[in-house]
Design goal:
The structure is a single chain. This protein has 199 residues and is α/β, with parallel strands linked by helices. The chain has a single domain, classed as Uracil-DNA glycosylase-like domain (Uracil-DNA Glycosylase, subunit E), CATH 3.40.470. It contains nine helices and six strands, in the order αββααβαβααββααα. Helix 1 (3-17) runs antiparallel to helix 4. It is globular. The termini are far apart. It catalyses: Hydrolyzes single-stranded DNA or mismatched double-stranded DNA and polynucleotides, releasing free uracil.
Length: 199
Amino acid sequence: MEKAEKLKELHEKWQKECKCALKDTGVRAVFGDGNPESEIIFIGEAPGKKEDELGIPFVGSAGKFLNEMLENIGVERKDIYITNIVKYRPPGNRDPEPEEKSDCREWLIEEINFINPKLLIFLGRHSMNDFFPLEKISNVHGKLLKKKFKNISCEYFLPLYHPASALYDGSMREVLMTDFQKIPKVLEKIDTGITTYVK
């Protein structure tokens, strides 16, 4: 069976088993999307209105900007994999509650380990704080973090601001574009091996 088919089965299994209360308000589960062989997984926060309608992550305005930034580093959207820490849209696009994140957590972990990327890229503080609760995105955006988690195969992490932040604050656009330019260099660094760990 192809890896894409197995990944679909994984999502369908968790769609049935996930106990997240957002199931009752969202239109559908929004599965991760993209290349199951990708070296990178981008992790956002939660689906928005457009994502909930179409069942694909990052298809609204923030998604368009994300695609533009990917193009700038010579990467096509179909070559990467993108998902969210919460698989259902919170009402009114509010922030997901801790319990909702927790209820979707095993789904996310299994998804990450199945794809087994070299690098996890956090899009925004919510996804970053799910893994690094004490870090502030203003301090670590664009910086490679290395940490071993007991249940995650990947140990390299790159926090970035959420693409939506550039839609509300024009100055963030430049910051995000600059941070995105670091992605190919970060992948090179990982290939050569890094010794610095974040506690």
